[in-house]
Amino acid sequence: MNVRKDEYISLTDIAKVKNPDNPRFVIQNWMRTIDTISFIGLWEILNNDQFNRVEFDAVKLEVGHNYFTMTPKKWIEKFNAIGITSKSGKYGSGMFAHKDIAFEFASWISSEFKLYLITAFQRLKKQESHSIKWTVKRELSKLNYHIHTNAIKSYIIPHVNKRYIKMTYANEADLFLS
Predict the structure, then answer these.
(1) 48 φ, ψ to 5°?
(2) 44 CB burial (10 A radius; 0-12, 13-18, 19+)
C-alpha cells in the first residue's frame, strides 16, 4: 500500500454541489452503480493488499439490481477498503476518497468537470509528445556528435582556409542537425 493521507479529497464537499442539504444521498446513489463499484473495486485491488476480493466478487453479482445498496461505511467495513474513508467530528467531517476515486465521483456529478479532465489530459499528452520529440532529437545529436565532428574535421575542414574554419565547422554542424 503506497497511498498517502494527503491524497484524499472530500466527496461530501463535491456532493454538496448537487444536494447541499443531504450530500450523503448523492454519494450513496453513486455507489449503487455497476460502473462505480467496478471502478472503486479495481482501484482497491491495485492499491490495497488487504482488500477483501472474495467478498467483492460475491457483491459484484448483486450490483445493478433494484435491491442493491451500498454506503461508504458498508464499503469500508465489508471489503477492508482504504480508497474511501469517513471522518467524524465537528470539523473536517465527511466522506473522503483518494483523488483517483474523487475525480471519478466528480466526473459522475458534473459533465463539465469530466470534459475539463479529458481536455487537460489531451493537452498534457500533446505537450509530452512535443517534449519527447525534442528530447529524442537532442539525444540523437549527442550520440552522433563524435561521428559528425570527425567527419567534418576529416573531410571538410582540411580543404578550407584556416581563417574560415570556425564558421565552416559551425555551418556544417547545423546542416547535420537539421
Answers:
(1) -135, 105
(2) buried
Q: So where are the chain's domains?
A: 5-109, 124-177
The Cα 118–Cα 150 span in angstroms is: 48
User: pTM for the complete prediction?
Assistant: 0.68
The Cα 34–Cα 23 span in angstroms is 20
Q: List, for residues 68-120, the tens digit of each pLDDT value.
A: 999 999 999 999 999 999 888 777 789 999 999 999 999 999 999 999 999 99
Give the C-alpha distances (Å, rounded to integers) separating 24 from 42, 94, 108, 137. 23, 9, 15, 53
C-alpha cell at 30: 453513486
* CA–CA separation, 28 and 108 (whole Å): 13
